[in-house]
Description:
Largest sheet: none
Low-confidence stretches: 1-23
Strand content: under 5%
CATH topology: 10k-s Protein, Hypothetical Protein A, Chain A
Distance between the termini: 22 Å
Amino acid sequence: MKHVVACIGNLAFGAASSAPAVSSTYVAPALPGATMDASDLYRLCTTDQSAPEYYEAEMYCRGYVVGAVDTTSIYSPTIFKIRPYCVPVGTPTEQVTRVVAAYLSAHPEERRWSAATEVFFALKNAFPCAK
């Protein structure tokens, strides 16, 4: 089932991965339609604060996560007919990105999947919608 969701995630979140590359930390995929894997996102989101590329990596991490969240909020009602997660209104972007980084830290085996797919699962785990 996760493979099916990964495919849907790649389709739904493809636009989120087309941002410019972070020069010293991440090189964007060369092929159109290629996606960033979760290990790349994890490296960006956990760059040491003393590293010269910290601010660039941190902003790329936040931008990617926010893009994935925005894409889900646009496509979920249309494609899935449900909200997969419910991040409380007013939750700071930094907190959302820390949730994603913590999930990827706790689940290193999941880092081989697309970054957008793992953002989806991290937030679904951390912010379930009320039933």
